[in-house]
Amino acid sequence: MLVKATLPDGAVREYAAGVSVERIAESISPGLKKNAVAGKINGKAVDLSVELNEDAAVEIITLDSADGLEVLRHSAAHL
């Protein structure tokens, strides 16, 4: 089964069901995968290991965004 990931720029990519957010980032760009700290599925922040099993809006969060800095701060608070 294929699922459709709609990216922030409106592009739609198809993947095998169960693809991780990290793998989606890698398929867009190896550099994006390297800089990714989290993702969003339908607007909800998720870990990179979360799998996509149905069509959804997908965003990759990197440290150069406000959301990415929030993820970093939250993670650091647990140290």
Structure, described:
Helices cover 33% and strands 38% of the residues. It has 3 helices and 7 strands. It has helices at 21-28, 30-35, 66-77, and strands at 2-6, 12-16, 19-20, 36-41, 44-46, 51-52, 56-62. The strands form 2 sheets. Strands 2-1-7-4-5 form a 5-stranded mixed β-sheet. Strands 3-6 form a two-stranded antiparallel ribbon. The longest helix has 12 residues, at 66-77. The model has no long low-confidence stretch (mean pLDDT 93).
CATH superfamily: Beta-grasp domain
Global morphology: globular
- The helix/strand order is EEEHHEEEEH
Tally of structural domains: 1
Radius of gyration: 12 Å
Structural class: alpha+beta
Main beta sheet, described?
5 strands, mixed
The N- to C-terminal Cα distance equals: 40 Å
Record field, number of beta strands: 7
**Helix content percent band:** 25-40%
Rounded mean pLDDT is: 93
Give the CATH class.
Answer: Alpha Beta
Instruction: Specify the CATH architecture.
Output: Roll
Q: Are there runs of 5+ residues with pLDDT below 50, and where? A: none
| Number of continuous helical runs | 3
**In CATH terms, what is the fold-level topology?**
Ubiquitin-like (UB roll)
Which short descriptors sum up this protein?
single chain, 79 residues, alpha+beta, Ubiquitin-like (UB roll), five-stranded mixed sheet, two-stranded antiparallel ribbon, 7 strands, globular
